[in-house]
């Protein structure tokens, strides 16, 4: 029996007057990788940001509808936003390490939560780095600046920083679009490894990437979800002509 | 419309498959002609042999075009189904070419064409020629009903094959000294039956390519 992580019901989102998401309904399953694809401006990044309420920071942004996580509507007044973002971490398009040491980057979150025990912090840093397969590459320079790492290493560091908070969900907004093919392959392998422990939702412009690493794919177009299905089905025999036209490059 | 070059290449693939299909149709009709003519016609036989060679060459060409499109364009959905269906169809067409030649080889050695007329072999051959023609046509016209027809006709062909088998058993029992002919007829019927199966495969791939 598949467990539901997010249950999204009738979500509409407005930036001021402009409606950016139209009646989104979907269920996102635990320990699965779900990919969001669609042309620029179709609402996929806007939607992924709804899942940890990153859109709250945008002025004039209004969200209607409900998004249940483990039975609770994350948009209800009861929801603790800091707690939500602890459980639903995010990795962005451009690697954004803090201008501090590799060690401090990862220890930052646990320290903010009040963890001071050096031994425990060491353990979290090392485990997180090992989980993203970065430890061997940086073991001898943990206290050097993270800014000296390559783009691919920085992105894996950001994923490690996210993991250090023991989230349930990792949201990834085009995590490899700024990386070379080798770093991209490493992140993709990592995603497949991480889904055993986490639920992963990824926005990508790289169709083959969605086909390679995701279990489910949702196709967004002009603020709507046109089709969501098992990834293999979407890329072999999509149900909707618009999905077909987009993924085969006949769009527009 | 984006990916114009890719679209042109897919059209080329389509055209190449039509060429290969018509080679097979041609080979089959010439083979049947050999089967029906009383004098052994070496000219027709040479033509079937040349067609078999051309079919092999065409298979290689189309195969490398498919592989190139797969690695360079990374096709998905209907494009992917189309290309993989073509890859499968060309091996069925190649087999049809081979088996047509196998039949032609047997047919040109047969002296007793009169006795052939009394069997259901010609009737079977007519069905097979139609199956090859219609399976290729269903691809050209993207006609799924026609493809369906090919699949149905295969059942008819299988029935005729069994009839021929029974006829041959009777001839063996009658012991009219037609041993060689009986073996030839059985082998030809079996090759025809296999060609029917390959045509059915092609029709199934047409369905997969255009319907999923």
Produce a short descriptive summary:
Chain A is α/β, with parallel strands linked by helices and 252 residues long. Chain A has 10 helices and 10 strands. Chain B has a single domain (4-211), classed as Phosphate transport system protein phou homolog 2, domain 2 (Methane Monooxygenase Hydroxylase, Chain G, domain 1, Up-down Bundle), CATH 1.20.58.
Q: What can you see in these coordinates?
A:
The complex is a heterodimer of chains A (252) and B (212). Chain A has one domain: Rossmann fold, CATH 3.40.50. In chain A, the strands form two sheets. In chain A, strands 6-7-8-3-9-10 form a six-stranded mixed sheet, sandwiched between helices. A four-stranded antiparallel sheet of chain A has the order 2-1-4-5, covered by helices on one side. In chain A, strand 7, helix 7 and strand 8 form a beta-alpha-beta unit. Chain A has 252 residues and is of the alpha/beta class. In chain A, 36% of the residues lie in helices and 27% in strands. Chain A has ten helices and ten strands. Chain B has 212 residues and is an all-alpha fold. Chain B has a single domain, classed as Phosphate transport system protein phou homolog 2, domain 2 (Methane Monooxygenase Hydroxylase, Chain G, domain 1), CATH 1.20.58. Helices cover 88% and strands 0% of the residues of chain B. Chain B has seven helices and no strands. In chain B, helix 6 runs antiparallel to helix 7. Chain B is elongated, with a radius of gyration of 19 Å. The interface between A and B is medium-sized, with 15 and 13 residues.
Whole-number tally of structural domains of chain B? 1
What is the fold named in CATH at topology level of chain A?
Rossmann fold
Alpha-carbon distance between the termini of chain A? 40 Å
Please report the two chains with the greatest interface, counting residues with C-beta closer than 8 angstroms to the partner's C-beta: A-B, 15 and 13 residues
Q: Which stretches of chain A are poorly predicted, pLDDT < 50 over at least 5 residues?
A: none
Give me the Rg of chain A, rounded.
Answer: 18 Å
């Amino acid at each position: 029996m598949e467990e539901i992580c997010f249950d999204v019901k009738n979500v509409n989102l407005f930036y001021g007057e402009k409606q950016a998401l139209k009646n989104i309904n979907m269920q996102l399953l635990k320990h699965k990788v779900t990919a969001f694809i669609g042309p620029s401006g179709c609402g996929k990044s806007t939607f992924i940001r709804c899942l940890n309420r990153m859109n709250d920071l945008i002025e004039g942004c209004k969200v209607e509808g409900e998004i249940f996580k483990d039975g609770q509507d994350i948009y209800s007044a009861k929801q603790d936003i800091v707690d939500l973002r602890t459980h639903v971490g995010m990795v962005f398009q451009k690697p954004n390490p803090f201008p501090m040491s590799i060690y401090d980057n990862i220890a930052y979150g646990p320290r903010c939560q009040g963890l001071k025990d050096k031994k425990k912090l060491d353990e979290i840093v090392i485990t997180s780095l090992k989980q993203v397969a970065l430890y061997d590459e940086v073991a001898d320079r943990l206290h050097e600046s993270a800014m000296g790492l390559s783009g691919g290493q920085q992105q894996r560091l950001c994923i490690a920083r996210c993991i250090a908070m023991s989230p349930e969900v990792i949201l990834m907004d085009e995590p490899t679009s700024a990386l070379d093919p080798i770093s991209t392959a490493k992140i993709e392998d990592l995603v497949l490894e991480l889904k055993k422990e986490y639920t992963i939702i990824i926005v990508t412009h790289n169709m083959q990437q969605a086909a390679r690493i995701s279990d489910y794919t949702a196709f967004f177009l002009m603020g709507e979800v046109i089709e969501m299905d098992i990834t293999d089905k979407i890329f072999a025999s999509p149900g909707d002509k618009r999905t077909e036209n987009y993924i085969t490059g006949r769009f527009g | 419309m984006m990916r114009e070059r890719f679209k042109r290449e897919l059209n080329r693939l389509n055209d190449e498959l039509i060429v290969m299909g018509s080679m097979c149709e041609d080979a089959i009709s010439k083979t049947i002609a050999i089967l029906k003519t009383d004098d052994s016609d070496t000219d027709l036989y040479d033509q079937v042999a040349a067609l078999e060679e051309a079919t092999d060459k065409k298979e290689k060409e189309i195969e490398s075009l498919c592989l190139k499109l797969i690695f360079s364009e990374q096709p998905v959905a209907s494009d992917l189904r189309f290309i993989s269906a073509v890859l499968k169809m060309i091996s069925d067409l190649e087999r049809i070419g081979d088996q047509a030649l196998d039949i032609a080889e047997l047919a040109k050695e047969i002296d007793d064409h009169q006795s052939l007329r009394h069997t259901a072999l010609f009737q079977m051959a007519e069905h097979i020629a139609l199956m090859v023609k219609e399976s290729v046509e269903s691809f050209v016209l993207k006609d799924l009903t026609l493809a369906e027809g090919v699949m149905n006709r295969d059942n008819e062909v299988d029935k005729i094959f069994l009839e021929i088998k029974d006829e041959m058993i009777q001839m063996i029992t009658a012991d009219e000294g037609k041993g060689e002919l009986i073996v030839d007829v059985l082998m030809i019927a079996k090759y025809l039956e296999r060609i029917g199966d390959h045509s059915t495969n092609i029709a199934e791939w047409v369905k997969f390519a255009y319907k999923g």
